[in-house]
Design a protein that fits this description.
signal, Secreted protein, 31% strand, 26% helix, alpha+beta, single chain
Length: 220
Amino acid sequence: MKKSALILTAICLTFALQAQNITTMWPYKYSDFRDGTVYFLNKRTLSAPVNIHLLKSSLHYLDKEQIKEVTTSEIVLVKIEEDSYYMRDNQLMRVVSGDSTGFVAELLLADFDALTESGGAYGSSSNVQATRKLSSLEVGGINITNHMELKSNKDGGSLLPVKKKYFIVTPDALYPATKKGIESQLPANRLADFRQFLKQNKVSWRNPESLSVLLQFFNE
């Protein structure tokens, strides 16, 4: 029991440290730029160190030590190590399970609104408490685009909370991964089938891995 408690504490600390790394000076998914490949609509590819900028879930890459942004509308797929991202609704969404024909997607966005509204645990400087309007903030990858400068000032920005959302993505639709969200977008003639499907298939709505069973319904 004591060993389990220690393991749980270690896991919680790991998540806390990861959350603290997301700041206005480093509003990125990954702790540094990682080798990735970008696939474009025109069949071109780009291999470069890349990262997901959490202001709009857009793609940044390194050209030498300068940070540049890839035009969102031209992206089809991004692979970053073991992670795959498809562009949907002008945002990069990570594939939790499935493939291009239908998948469970995770969307991460930094909550800049919370930063400007509150001066609590989030909205505080990593070093000195302060609340500032977004327009006056220096945002890494936006106002400051030198990679080494950002890395050396990671902890100098304001801490950012991160919003995590899940979706069911099909070739022609994007559904919030909640019972209410899906039902609100289904045509009336499919509602009864969906409710029957849920009776026959257990879905744990708070478990992203469990959401994959919903893909069966949309593939029928």
